[in-house]
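[step 3/7] inverse_fold.run input=structure_tokens len=376
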């Protein structure tokens, strides 16, 4: 059998960046993916009916403060500036999200300046919580019960299928609270959308003579025979045949509908009320404001528990998962010749820029260890 340097499972950003880094170092690698397309969950495609670019597995906005990662993705396609601004519907009104001075003034019917708004929120918030132990305590400490009830409680129960008291505070820390009119969803200096979608970017990363790509190919035990190393960006528990049990994920269902013209006037509208069963509606054409389309494609997004045949989206990481994760990590660390990478391989929520950063570091570390003659 011909020897190749690495078998890489998964043709998302993790697998593609590792493959490219090894190939550029002169190695010969094979990338497989069970799906019939590259780009993993970042996959985009043009809608046959309207020609709108669709984010098939949910809305993806590229944002980063990592200069090298930004330069890296720009090598493989054109990114257009896109500033993500989210709205949220709650109790019959539309507000700006994340919570900012406009949200606060509109919600309380006030004309506060920044310091007055901060003082007003501080008066609502719980001052006796030093270290928030969960999502709800984090909300109580920083925004108080009114804003929490209107914008976070219902949404979070729908998104995660449990009480916010059972979720880590870190989930809420992803969102800022601003006492200014800055309503940008992300704070990073670079924000953008690939002009031709993420699929084209990942396909360009994989386009190298040292990379063989096999789509529609599910990993089978022993496939790595004849390869120097296995990089695994599939589910960590899946590699071990779920021997210790399944790590919990939330999955998403998207209900597609089309409209003439403009349905909601923005890319993403969240729904904070618990009696609305979906979490948000994405209107995809607003991700490409430089394009013009008469028709419009929208996705209503529903979150639910992930079954064995569903696509895993969000790792839950609650107490029981943490114990199971530690057991799987111990099994993974005992292996030689296999490296677990990416959002599924490490069972973490990773933004695209962090995924690319970790994949670059992983491949470079692997090459350096090989050069030094150490096992990886
Ligand atoms: P994936 O993209 O999941 O790729 C893994 C690949 O492995 C898949 O293609 C899968 O088919 C394949 N695979 C798995 N098991 C096997 C097997 N046994 N055999 C063969 N192939 C296999 N990030 C941002 O920066 N901005 C955003 O706005 C953003 N929005 C998001 C919205 C949602 C709803 C979600 C869930 C995530 C979002 N992300 C966002 C995160 C982004 O999706 C991830 O950073 C990215 O997908 C990670 O890439 P990956 O290659 O690690 O994993
Ligand atoms: N969240 C919320 N209401 C909103 C937006 C977010 O309650 O309108 C909560 C929800 O629990 C979510 C978390 O804040 O999981 C982090 O928000 P983010 O936008 O980062 O969520 P993601 O990108 O993971 O969907």
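[step 3/7] decode complete -> sequence:
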């Amino acid at each position: 059998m011909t020897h190749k340097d690495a078998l890489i499972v998964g043709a998302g950003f993790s697998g593609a960046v590792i493959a490219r880094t090894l190939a550029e170092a002169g190695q010969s690698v094979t990338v497989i993916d069970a799906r019939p397309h590259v780009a993993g969950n970042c996959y985009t495609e043009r809608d046959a009916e309207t020609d709108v670019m669709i984010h098939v597995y949910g809305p993806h906005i590229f944002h980063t403060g990592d200069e090298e990662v930004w330069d890296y993705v720009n090598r493989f396609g054109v990114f257009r500036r896109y500033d993500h601004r989210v709205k949220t519907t709650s109790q019959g009104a539309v507000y700006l999200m994340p919570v900012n001075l406009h949200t606060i003034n509109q919600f309380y019917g006030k004309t506060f300046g920044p310091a007055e708004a901060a003082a007003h929120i501080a008066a609502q918030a719980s001052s006796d919580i030093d270290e928030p132990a969960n999502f709800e305590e984090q909300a109580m400490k920083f925004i108080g019960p009114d804003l929490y009830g209107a914008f976070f409680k219902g949404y979070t129960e729908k998104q995660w299928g449990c009480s916010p008291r059972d979720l880590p505070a870190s989930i809420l820390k992803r969102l800022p609270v601003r006492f200014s009119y800055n309503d940008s969803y992300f704070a990073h200096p670079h924000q953008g959308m690939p002009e031709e979608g993420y699929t084209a970017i990942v396909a360009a990363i994989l386009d190298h003579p040292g990379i063989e790509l096999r789509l529609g190919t599910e990993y089978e035990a022993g496939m790595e025979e004849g390869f120097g190393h296995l990089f695994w960006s599939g589910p960590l528990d899946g590699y071990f045949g779920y021997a210790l049990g399944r790590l919990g994920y939330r999955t998403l269902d998207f209900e597609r509908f089309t409209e003439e013209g403009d349905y909601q006037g923005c890319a993403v509208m969240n729904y904070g009320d618990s009696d609305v069963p979906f979490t948000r509606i994405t209107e995809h054409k607003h991700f490409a404001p430089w394009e013009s389309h008469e028709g419009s494609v929208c996705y209503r997004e529903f979150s639910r528990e992930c079954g064995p045949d569903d696509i895993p989206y969000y790792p839950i990481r609650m107490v029981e998962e943490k114990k199971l994760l530690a057991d799987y990590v111990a099994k993974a660390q005992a292996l030689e010749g296999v490296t677990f990478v990416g959002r599924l391989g490490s069972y973490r929520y990773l933004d695209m820029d962090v995924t690319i950063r970790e994949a670059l570091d992983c491949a470079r570390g692997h090459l350096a260890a090989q050069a030094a003659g150490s096992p990886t």
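[step 4/7] annotate
DSSP finds twelve helices and 17 strands in the chain.
The CA atoms of residues 41 and 58 lie 8 Å apart.
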